[in-house]
Amino acid sequence: MTDLPTSEAITRRVKRIADIIGGGIALLAMAPVFAAIAAAILLDDGRPVFFTQTRVGRDEVPFRIWKFRTLPPAPQASATADDDCEVGEECRSMHARKMPARAATRVGGVLRAWSLDELPQLWNVLRGDMSLIGPRPTIPEQVARYGEYERKRLRVRPGITGWAQIHGRNLLSWPERINLDVWYVENWSLGLDLRILLRTPAVVLSGHGVNGREGRNPDFPAHDAHDPSRTSSPPSSFR
């Protein structure tokens, strides 16, 4: 006798169907915006229009994330994993602070201010690399420094927006962000996803948390700098 799917398995399938339908509709609806952004990037400083980078997804499976390019093209000899991450909320690495940051292009600054550079990730959602909602995907260099607690955030597909994004984004320290992500994973429901989805537009429009405190985003701590007491339990309350 074939085992029937559990209620959790059914809700996970519903989430995936919602991702496909929502992502597909958003891609079609945003096609004119995609075209306008691509044209603006080309007119501003030429090709390439898109930026791709390896990120770590569910169950530590790597994938290529897509963004609109917001920085000037890096010289080939100096290209690094952080070429589009000086102000990225999820991918600042330890060696990035040793290198001179390149300022965003004129168009790139606008895209980042309104999170429009993230729109191509709708393609990642359709491919199944990401979800509309979940913890933001990080680079392999950071995941290599994860402990058992931090790896809990890799149990689900990463998202375009998430619980940490509506609670401070880059104003959060990494331990705070990871606590919020783990809390989301352990308390996930379709209702929670809907709550995050409804709150995201207001956060984006307000610009709250686009940049870290004093205009500098928090660095991801080195493995030997982790304080287990800072990441052993979720915050005491959530709004």
Tell me what you see in this structure.
By secondary structure, the chain is mainly alpha-helical. The chain has one domain (7-230). 36% of the residues lie in helices and 8% in strands. The protein is built from seven helices and four strands, in the order H-H-E-E-H-H-E-H-E-H-H. It has helices at residues 7-29, 31-45, 106-113, 121-127, 140-143, 174-186, 190-206; strands at 50-56, 62-68, 131-133, 159-161. It has a two-stranded antiparallel sheet. Strands 3-4 form a two-stranded parallel sheet. Helix 1 (7-29) packs across helix 4 (121-127) and helix 2 runs antiparallel to helix 3 (106-113). The model is unreliable at 76-84, 92-101 and 224-237 (pLDDT under 50).
Secondary-structure topology with pairs:
Elements: H1 7-29, H2 31-45, E1 50-56, E2 62-68, H3 106-113, H4 121-127, E3 131-133, H5 140-143, E4 159-161, H6 174-186, H7 190-206
Parallel strand pairs: 3-4
Antiparallel strand pairs: 1-2
Helix pairs in contact: 1-4, 2-3
